[in-house]
Amino acid sequence: MQRSLFLLAFLALSIVGCNPGTPDANNSSSNTSASNGGNTAKKFRIAFIPKGSTHEFWKAMQAGAEEAAKANNVDLIWKAPLKEDDKADQGKIVENFTTEKVDGIVLAPLDEEALKNPSKEAIAKGIKMIIVDSGLKDVATESFIATDNEKAGYMGGERLAQALGGKGKVIMLRYAEGSASTMAREKGFLEAAKKGGLEVVSENQHGGATRESAQSASESLLQTFKVGDGLSIQGIFCPNESTAFGMMKALQNNKYMGKVKFVGFDSSKELLDGVASGDIEGLVLQNPSNMGKLAVENMVKVLKGEKIDARIDTGAKLVDKANMTSDEVKALLGKK
């Protein structure tokens, strides 16, 4: 009997020794360590704050950011102001994410001055910040990832001068005061237009943040230059998607389309249809998807303690009827 009890006790001890126990299913550190060879990986929380959410540009940027977030196991929070001209709302969003203590903030500032203080406060609290699309004055951020907007605007001015043979009167409908990206494009366009022999007869009107406000401003601006059934101007430039769309609609509604050379900026289905038909001379296209992707990828590097470039140019290309079906442009537009 004693021999049997001894054998049973020995077997029980052997079983316990072979089974160290199952890790707690709620203990993520244990699970992560096991799956990563003992290295616990932190899942970073990154807030991405664009200028808006309705324009195709921001939708493409969001797609690129989400792609990078998935690839890098990032908790990405995308939050835009309700209106693309609400600087105060965008500032509050920055403040809220600062209070939440996210690891990093990617910001496309609506205004180079108005977003300074909220951004400085976030950085002072230890939150890493990267600026995309449009610059921010006097704030030391990790990087500025954007198009070289002045150069891109210059491309638009060069193309309009080329299309008009180096002579003619042209107008420019601006976007909004304080928007660093579009102000740089406008500056580049004016430099190229004047250098190319064009006479800029209007450059001080603004289209505003929406397609509707841009169309209204375009209607008023075109009325100023109406002569009989036509216009006294030969060319037009618009520095972003909403102003380009609003101007296109105004030209169509007044049957002026095709009577002037028109160069826009950014893309939408309607604008690309205008290029394909020849009604729009060209569009200067950025790469918003790549901008969003690079912003998230580089923020992850910063949060891991790696160095990144202070300025990253995501490039721009002028797209016209001749090249819009090329592989390069298809890739830029996210088409196969």
How is the secondary structure organized here?
Layout: H1 2-18, H2 28-35, E1 45-49, H3 56-71, E2 75-78, H4 87-100, E3 104-107, H5 116-124, E4 128-132, E5 143-146, H6 149-163, E6 169-174, H7 180-195, E7 199-206, H8 211-224, E8 226-227, E9 230-231, E10 235-237, H9 241-253, E11 261-265, H10 269-277, E12 282-285, H11 288-303, E13 311-313, E14 317-319, H12 327-332
The biggest sheet, with number of strands, parallel, antiparallel or mixed sense and barrel status, is:
6 strands, parallel
Beta fraction of the residues?
Answer: 15-25%
Q: What is the domain total for the residues? A: 2
CATH superfamily of the largest domain: Response regulator
CATH architecture of the largest domain: 3-Layer(aba) Sandwich
Structural class: alpha/beta
Give the helix level as a range of percent: 40-55%
What is the arithmetic mean of pLDDT? 89
The strand line-up of the biggest sheet is 2-1-3-4-5-13
| SS element count, helices | 12
- Separation, N- and C-terminal Cα atoms: 80 Å
- What is the CATH topology of the largest domain? Rossmann fold
Tell me the Rg in angstroms. 27 Å
Series of H and E elements = HHEHEHEHEEHEHEHEEEHEHEHEEH
Shape: elongated
Number of strands: 14
Name of the CATH class of the largest domain: Alpha Beta
Low-confidence stretches: 1-39
